[in-house]
Amino acid sequence: MEPLLRSARGRRLLPLGPALLVLAAALAGRDLTGAPAVLLALGLAAAVFWAVSWVAEQAARSRLEEARLEEELLQSQKMAAIGQLSSGIAHEINTPLAVIGQEAELGLMELGAPALQGLAGLDGARDNLRQIALQVERCREITHKLLSLSRKMEAIVQDTDVNALTEDMVRLVEREARLKDIVLERNYAGQLPPVATDPALLRQVILNLLNNANQAVGRDGRVLVSTDMPTRDRVRISVEDSGPGISPENMGKLFTPFFTTKPPGQGTGLGLSMCMTIMQRLGGVIQASSPPGRGARFEILLPLRKNGQTT
Amino acid sequence: MPTPPAKVLVVDDEERFGANMVKILEANGIKARHAKDGEEALAEAGRKGYDVILLDMKMPGLSGKDVLKKLRQAKNPAKVVVLTGHASVDDAVELINMGAYDYLLKPCQTEQLVKMISLAYEQRLIEERELG
C-alpha cells in the first residue's frame, strides 16, 4: 500500500491524526448510540488508518535514508579511487612529459642556429616543434590539476592556526607573484582562536584562490588576503584582487565543474568546484562577489567547530 | 665587477631529463652539471661550490628529502629548488619548512625555472655578503 502520508493530501491531513485520537478516546468512555456511535467508529477507523500510515511512512523513510547513505559511501569510495588513480598517472606522466617539452625546446634552439637561417623547408619543422611545446603545456595543466585532486578527501580534523596556515600559502605563491610584480598584501586578524578543521584541505582551497587571484590581476596587480571573525563562532579568510572582476552572467556558474573563462589549455575549470566540495566537507562556505570596477572577492567561512564536534 | 653566472647542479635519475636540463640552462647563461642520484649529488655538492641545486624527489637510493636533509646538516650554502613530478601542497610546505628555497612541479616552463634560479642565486649572493 502506498502510505497515505507520502502524498501531499495525506501530509495536509497529518495534524488531524492526534485530534481524532483524542476525540475517539473521549467518546469511547461513554455509553453511546446513534450519531455519536457513528462518530466514534469513524474516529477510531481514522485513528487506526493514521497510525498505520505513520508506521509505513517511518519504514519508507528509513529505507530511503539507508539507500542515501549507501549511495554517499559509494560516491566517496569512487572519488578516492579516481583520485588515487589519477594522481598515480599524473606522477608517472609528468617526467616523460617534461622530457618531451625539453626535446621540443632544444630542437627549436638547434633550428635557430645562424647557419640554418633562411633554409627552405625548416619553417614547417619549427612550427611542428612549437606545436609540441604548446600541447605539452596543455597536458601539464591537466596533470598538475589531477595531482591537486589526488589527496584523499576525508577530512582529518585538528586544531589549526588559520593565520599561520594562510601565511604559509601566501609565501608559497609570493615568489612567483614577485616575478610578475604582483603585490600581495596581508591583513590578518590579531588574535584568532584555533579552528578545528583539516589543514591540508584548507590549504588547497586557499592556494587555489591565491593562484586564481594572481592569474586574474596579471602584471602589476594587487591581491589582498585577510582573516577575521565576522561572528563569534566563525573565522573568515578572504582573497580580493584588483583584476577585471567577474561578470554577472558568470557569477552563477563559477563553482560548476569544468566552467572556465580562461583560454583553452590554460584552465581546467576544476579549481573552484573542488574548493566548493572541500568547503562543504569542512562544514564551511565559500562565496564570491564582484562589485563593478573593484575586482573579485572570494571568502571562505569556517565554523570554529564543525556541527557535532565537541571541544 | 659583473656577477659571475650561477652554478647549478641538476639532480635527477632520469638521464635524458638531466642532460637536456643542462643544455637548456647553459643556453640561458647558467653553468650547469648533472648528477644522476643522491650520492653523486652530495659528493659533487661537497666538492664544488654550487649556488643552486635543482633536486628531484623520487630517486632510487637516497631520496630528494634525504639529500636535502644532508645538505642542510652539512651547512651547504647552496639554495635548493625542488623540481619534482609528483607532489602535493603538503609536500611543498614540508620541503620548504625543511629548508628548500622553493618548489616547482615538472614539467615547468624554462622561463619560470630560469627566473626562479636567478632569484635563488640573488638570495645566495646576499647571504654570502652578509655572512662575509
Description:
The complex is a heterodimer of chains A (311) and B (132). Chain A is built from 8 helices and 7 strands. Chain A has helices at residues 8-13, 16-28, 35-111, 122-149, 162-179, 199-217, 248-251, 271-281, and strands at residues 158-160, 183-187, 195-197, 222-231, 234-241, 285-289, 297-303. In chain A, a hairpin with a 7-residue loop joins strand 6 (285-289) and strand 7. The two termini of chain A are 47 Å apart. The mean pLDDT of chain A is 81. Chain B is of the alpha/beta class and 132 residues long. Chain B is built from 5 helices and 5 strands, in the order βαβαβαβαβα. In chain B, strands 2-1-3-4-5 form a 5-stranded parallel beta sheet, with helices on both faces. In chain B, strand 4 (79-84), helix 4 (89-97) and strand 5 form a beta-alpha-beta unit. In chain B, helix 2 packs parallel to helix 3 (64-73). The mean pLDDT of chain B is 89. Classes of the chains: A alpha+beta (311), B alpha/beta (132). Chain A binds chain B through residues 87, 90-92, 94-95, 97-103, 105-106, 109, 136-137, 140, 144, 147-148, 150-151, 168-169, 171-172, 175-176, 178-179, 200, 203-204, 207, and chain B through 14, 16-17, 20-21, 23-24, 27, 58, 85-90, 92-93, 96, 102-103, 105-110, 112, 115-116, 119.
Compile the SSE list and pairings.
The complex is a heterodimer of chains A (311) and B (132).
Chain A: H1 8-13, H2 16-28, H3 35-111, H4 122-149, E1 158-160, H5 162-179, E2 183-187, E3 195-197, H6 199-217, E4 222-231, E5 234-241, H7 248-251, H8 271-281, E6 285-289, E7 297-303
Helix pairs in contact in A: 2-3, 3-4, 5-6, 6-8
Chain B: E1 7-11, H1 15-27, E2 31-35, H2 38-47, E3 52-55, H3 64-73, E4 79-84, H4 89-97, E5 102-105, H5 110-131
Parallel strand pairs in B: 1-2, 1-3, 3-4, 4-5
Helix pairs in contact in B: 2-3
